[in-house]
Amino acid sequence: LFLPLSMETDTPVIVDRPDRGMVRQANALVKSAQTMELNEKRLIMLAMSRIRWGDEEFLTQDIPVTELAKWIGGNPYQEGRKAADGLLHRVVDILEDGGGQTKFQWTTLSAYIPAHKHKAGVACVRIRFNEELSPFLLQLRDRYNQIPLAHMLPMPSYNSQRLYEILWHDSHAGTKSFLSYEIEQLKIYIGLRDPKGKWEKYKPWKDFRKVLGKAVEDFNSFGSLKIKGYSGKRQSKRAYSHILFQLKKDDSPALPQRAAGAPDLDPKVMSLVAELERLGYVQNAFGAVETYGLEVVKRTLDLAREAERKAASTNKPIYNLGGLIASMLKQGTAARRVTTTQEEARLTNQELEKLARALADAYQEALTARANVLWTEMPEAERQTVHESMRAELSSTLVDYLNSVQWQGRGYVGVRNTYVLDTRLDALTEELADLEAYTFSDPRLTTYGTIERERVLERARSLHDNPTDT
């Protein structure tokens, strides 16, 4: 799945690339000076693999979080966004013949798009390459190189990834067995030395050998290019000037399908994560499954859909299904296994009326408290704007009443709170989104089965919508 967005139309395009497992880039970009974090490199390579040969301009690249999860350890939502933000500050330094240099940022855009806001219905990390990279990534006809994406992404070290990229390029995909480099120049490519020599990491040969040792280990575990051996050439008793690599090619390596530390990609988990995102669950879907368990999350989705279906026939439909799911998971609704087949306690009409009125009153009190908090925290200028909007939008009868009480007192507060809540729905918590969400975990309902609960909630909704109803 490939989800680029045109910068002009902002319309998702699903592209099937038969060669999308390859990263194609100009030789000068491979041999540039670059420094970044491991996950930033992974994100760059994933984005590069999505560029088609015929592209004439950069498309905004949307990389699904479910795909990032294969290669980014930890929380893919947090780590993906962190990597995208970090790339905005990373600079690529093109080293030109004769000592010239050209520097520019890798990317010009970083964004996280929740599934419910993405036209394709998937949560994505969005980046856009700097236009200065066009000659190095678009419509390459000569002086370019291709490297298999799956060889590099699993490597747990940025230094190993970068060295693999350089050696793959210079060995012509492993067809050359020996390569020699000036150590200082190789460090510049990897990002361990400033091109002007202002700083250098792992300067002693014994320290740089630790980087090489880790690379040998990673090359042997991942990819088809192997370091059979390496040796340093002394410049003096204590300093080394050059390094010689002996390489070999494994044409049928066992490549891992995900990086170490990446979440378990059980198909059932992936399917449930995708469904959570499709329904508008904006929090960490992987974390939800890990915290609450597969079965509890599945049951929660079923209960939430049932609540949405029932509410659709009322004047209080559920607009934020993802928020309801989050609330139900937090409150442990699905963990309480309520079934319609169990013997239910029956309510008399008097008991039902009493319980329904208590729930409706409690919900209204919670809404009132929230409205009071919103008003208290509102700057004076914004309060004046609310009053002006009320004068313009409320009926003349109601405005006359407010004028008669001089916009103060209990009656005014009630009208104001109703207006504030109606015009600031986004300020409501998931629990206050509707009465059903508010009462899902109410202990007064937990002793009753589905049928009785629905009877109570139906009456409570009626009382809340029509407070004078008796």
From TrEMBL:
Descriptive protein name: Initiator Rep protein WH1 domain-containing protein
Family: Belongs to the initiator RepB protein family.
Residue ranges the record marks as coiled coil: 338-372
Alphabetized Pfam families for the sequence: Rep3_N
Gene3D superfamilies: Winged helix-like DNA-binding domain superfamily/Winged helix DNA-binding domain
Manganese found in the keyword field: no
Domain Initiator Rep protein WH1 as annotated: residue spans: 23-167
Lineage: Bacteria, Bacillati, Chloroflexota, Chloroflexia, environmental samples
A molecular function (GO) term: DNA-directed DNA polymerase activity
Keyword line: Coiled coil
One of the protein's GO biological processes: DNA replication initiation
Presence of keyword Transport: no
Family matches, as InterPro entries: Initiator_Rep_WH1, WH-like_DNA-bd_sf, WH_DNA-bd_sf
